[in-house]
Amino acid sequence: MQSTTTPQVTTGWGRKTAYDDWVQSLEIPVHTGYYVEDIRTVEVGWWPERECSAAILKLAGQEGVTEVRVTEIPAGKTTAPVHQALDELVYVADGRGLTAISAGGRSPKTFEWQKHSLFLIPRNHTYQLSNTQGDRPVRLLHYNSLPMAMQLLPDPDFFFRDHGANPDLLYGEGEGEFYSEAKIVKGANDVRGGAFWVGNFFPDMRAWDSLVPFKGRGAGGHVVWIRYPKAPLWNHMSVFGSKTYKKGHRHGPGTLIVIPTGEGYSYMWPEGGEKVYIPWHEASVFVPPNRWFHQHFNVSAETDRYLAFHAPRGGGGNERVEDQARDQIEYPDEDSIIRETFERELGKRGLKSIMPDIAYSDRGYEWEYANDQD
Q: What is the DSSP letter of 170?
């Protein structure tokens, strides 16, 4: 089930774009609203050109910046070859399979993936996706900047033609296998915790445990920052404890949030406006609209995770809070409905909040982190 409320969000001059026309021509389901409860079960339709089923998500917060697409591959089947001029991130919502990717007419490189894997398909390469399971379909979530790119170049065919990739990216020697294990970069001064991971394949985001404290956002949470060596798209995954919740904050459009594991909800609202309630669990997705505050709540007995997909910096989306006084709401300053709703939702499940009382009176309060060396 997904939101049936019509989002009060507009883009551009309200006119149809080349991307809108292209999506309409596909004749596959298009889902709108504020969220999709479960991308593993959302309706898809057959896409003959790709030899798979698919659906387009046009959620409120994408606002012509990013594309979010769901693909379903039948048991034991392989998609048609696709050549795409833009970088694309793929998250495996369900299933197990194989990607074959090539450039310049050379033999393809292949790698296997499983549920909760995350990987990059680099621009100007040709790829195919295979379901290696013989008994059930695969569900994949795709994220790219196609709507924004088509605003600048309103020619859909351009983005699916071969413009000639640099084969060294995939086949070159000296930098290791393209889809080899990600590596940590320490000492980064532009991310909290001073480290991020660089790679093109992350095998299981549900089990990823190389985390650093996410100070300043509350709930004693941890985070991993993810970057791709040659692509402007990026991710982060936030992990926060049972019976806690994060501070409200806001940023630009286009940031997709998918839930790898957990149960909770989020509030989203424009400054001074009505709050939208987003219930979520594994495989739920939503996109906070441009400059809307949003806040995430864990009402389960386990640790929750949310994985964020970010548009290129300067292209709309930006997770970083640039002005904390204006763009982040400290616990003592939040609307009373925030705490009331949280405690009520926990009570429905026989749980009680473990948020410390001091967090509601001391704006400078910060959780203690084990083995904290900062």
A: H
The CA dihedral of 13, 15, 21, 24, to the nearest 10 degrees, is: 110
What six digits make up the tokens of 2?
Answer: 């997904």
Residue 316 to residue 62: CA distance in whole angstroms: 9
**163 Cβ partners below 8 Å, 6+ apart?**
85, 124
Alpha helices in the chain (DSSP H): 18-26, 146-152, 168-171, 324-327, 336-348
This prediction has a pTM of 0.92
Residues 197 and 232 reside in one and the same domain: yes
Of 137, 171, 205, the one marking the end of a domain is: 171
DSSP-assigned letter for residue 357:
G
Q: End-to-end alpha-carbon separation of the chain, Å? A: 43
Q: Contact 76/131 with Cβ under 8 angstroms? A: yes
* Shared domain check, 252 and 151: no
Q: Which residues pair with 263 in a beta bridge?
A: 281
pLDDT averaged over 10-residue windows placed end to end, the chain, 374 residues: 43 72 97 98 98 98 96 98 96 98 92 98 96 98 97 94 85 76 83 85 97 93 95 96 97 96 98 97 97 97 98 60 77 97 98 98 91 53
What 218-221 contacts at long range (C-beta under 8 Å, 24+ apart), as own/partner pairs, is 218/244, 218/245, 218/246, 218/247, 218/331, 218/359, 218/367, 219/244, 219/245, 219/246, 219/247, 219/298, 219/355, 219/367, 220/244, 220/367, 220/368, 220/369, 221/246
CB-CB contact of 56 with 42 (8 Å)? no
Residue where a domain stops, chosen among 171, 201, 222: 171
Range of the domain at 108: 18-171
Residue pair 31/3 in contact by the 8 Å Cβ criterion:
no
